User: Fold these one by one.
Assistant:
Number 1:
Amino acid sequence: MVAVPDTVANGTVTRSDSAKNDPDELVAQIEHTRADLARTIDALADRVSPASNVRALRAKVMAQLTRPEVQAGAAAAGAVVIGLTVLSIWARRRRRR
């Protein structure tokens, strides 16, 4: 019998006839497949986890807040809100007199 080398096609490994019949090789292949599936499931669970998504969003926001133009924009927006609040309070007090 001539041994056919292992080949990879479309993401699967084609084993030679002798490797297909070797129980130790089959066990090793099964364990390797289980480990791959476990890593894939962990990666998918991490992607859809709400806590993970919140952490990623928080990291993005914190990275943006360190930029000077964002800080200046936030300061300007805060100043507008404070100005409108003071103006609203002043207008109410003036109407009461």
Note: The first strand starts at residue 7 and ends at 9.
Number 2:
Amino acid sequence: MKAKKKFFMDCHLAGRKYHDADEVWDKLRVGTELRLVLDTDNRHDPNAVAVVYHDNEQDDDFCIGYIPRTGNETIAAFLEMGWTHAFECRISKINEDAYPEQQIHLTIKIKRNS
């Protein structure tokens, strides 16, 4: 039987203190699924990939940070080519006592195209 998902990478959430994470902090849990969105307007990084939490209660999206620059090039290329559902991104660890850039860790998997 073929796996439905394959591990791609683990990373921390970059830029957490500069974005909307505080607005939805009480809703973020280990296992929470997040969306990866190519940020084509980002003047600091041409491969910027935003990490977005969708709040079903408010029916609103919140950019809580970014995939670190050192690991975003491949994901950005797939998103640019229209593979917006190729990745599954979930919170794998939360440590609210850590420095903001280390508070949220993510696990990203590639989903089977079926």
Note: The mean pLDDT is 93.
Number 3:
Amino acid sequence: MSVDITLKALSEEIGAELKGDGGHIVNGCATLTDANKQQLSFIYNKKYTPALLSTNAGVVVLSEGYANDCPTNALIVDNPYLAYAQAATILHSSIVNERSVHPTAVIAETSVMPTSCYIGPHVIIADNVQIGEGCSIGAGVIIGEGVKIGDDAQLFANVTLCNQVNIGHRVIVHPGAVIGSDGFGLAPKPNKQGWQKIPQIGSVLIGDDVEIGANTTIDRGALEDTIIGNGVKIDNQVMIAHNVIIGDHTAIAGCAGIAGSTTIGKHCTLAGGVGLVGHISIADGVHITGMTMVTHSIKEPGAYSSGTPFQKNSDWLKNAVRFKQLDRLSRKINQVLKK
């Protein structure tokens, strides 16, 4: 839901310099092209300058360099993108459900749930669950035995928390995420007789202020726990295997896959489609670009890439053949150099 706020109040909330009418009221956000007089917009890239010149927005969040081009009220800041995020959070506050328990919810008598929580339709809460103050549990959520949830957590529809999972304060879990399912632990039987499942007896520990995207899966540990640090942000459809450890404030984009027993440091970013093999370590401050396959540990901060940019298929086929020839060509070159 949106809220009405004066530009003077909004500027004070986000620490911006106000240029224009402090009494003007805005109640939402939109692009420079689509915004009306009651909406806020922003600019941080010069390619949108033409849209800024003709915008009908009630106010624009921008840096000092764009102030003279702005035809309307302006909120001047050093970091417009961050300030926009803060303003949008104020203008579009999360929907707050009433403190209630839907009559279709099934809650074990041994579980602890404060009266400040919202429990939606068809929720199932097993034995010995502890839920903190002010939590919102959406429709169809399943919470397994012994789960602990901190204060002000939001679990959207059809989230599954398996047994013994521990979630911190202010955690957001989007629809369909599964946390604490069994890790992929299998031992090969002799003579190609198949596989022996290895019991996964660890759990998942999730810190404070974590956000987990829709349909993401986080496996429980085999012996020790899978650990997600404070402030970690995980996009949709990410796969995190057993015994992975992710450091504080790391961000992982959609469709990334992290194999078992991998440790990722603090303040890292993994772009979309990144793959990490198991049993490696990633240092703090590492940034991995999209579709990169990481096959060994990274010990120094910085940006790393392995994916090849797209090209015409005919060129790609030629280069793929040449790639297979690199070892043979390298050996020939070494022979020539020796002579």
Note: Residues 313-339 form one domain.
Number 4:
Amino acid sequence: MASINNNKETQFSPFRERLYEIIFEADTPAGKWFDIVLLIFILASVIVVMLDTVPSMRQYSTIFIILEWIFTIFFTVEYFIRIYTVHRPKKYITSFFGIVDLISILPTYLALVFTGTQTLMVVRALRLLRVFRIFKLGNFLFEGQVILKALKDSRDKIMVFMAFIVIMVTIFGSVIFFLESHSELGNPEFTSIPKSVYWAIVTLSTVGYGDIVPHSPLGQFLSGILMIMAYAVIAVPTGIVTNSLSKAKKRKEARKFTSQVCSYCLKDGHDIDADFCKFCGGGLHLSHPAEKNGNKPNNQPT
């Protein structure tokens, strides 16, 4: 099979490769400084959007508009440069961060047609998730992967548990509707089974808004049973996920991870000594000591 590095799509100029290193990687001083500046712009943009909604700050609305367009133009240029520098642009465009990057610049342009959409720009706060990679917080990356692995391993048990909860609140909602609607002391606000199911969900989750409560003795008794059951119900998913977390952490605790992002599939979480992506087989950019000195590693994927 032909080497992925010999693929025509990988024949980037040194300038293009350097640009990718600065924008996508945080292993070099230039890349780290770029991402720090990017985070400052993101924070400043979110603050401007928040201040623009404060009535006492409306006198500065013109300044806020100018600043917002500066931020939007910067993020737009950055977005297209990211598309230009990756080996597979479609991968980036359809990735989580690619979608967030696109959504973060659309509201400003949509505001030219639809008023009020500029407030949606607070979604840019999601881009702050890059802080984990920028500052090479390896422990956080490791723990994040452990949590995702635990949730994936326990998804079947969680789905069964959620199905049980849906059945339970439906039954309790139906019973409380019958009790309250057929009792002289019942609460007339229980007007339908769906609204009664809403009460059951609020009670079982221990949220307890108190906007609708049973008045009849039997309804209050049933409510007490449901609240007591809630403590046991809450403990079930905790035990499931905790057990999966323990197993996932044992499997991963002996492994170290790097902040390198594959330029082909844009996935991270590679072993710190890896030369090639474990997901697609592509060469990791500057992942090998020899590459950092300007050379290529001797072994190439086939």
Note: Residues 1-9, 286-302 have pLDDT under 50 and may be disordered.
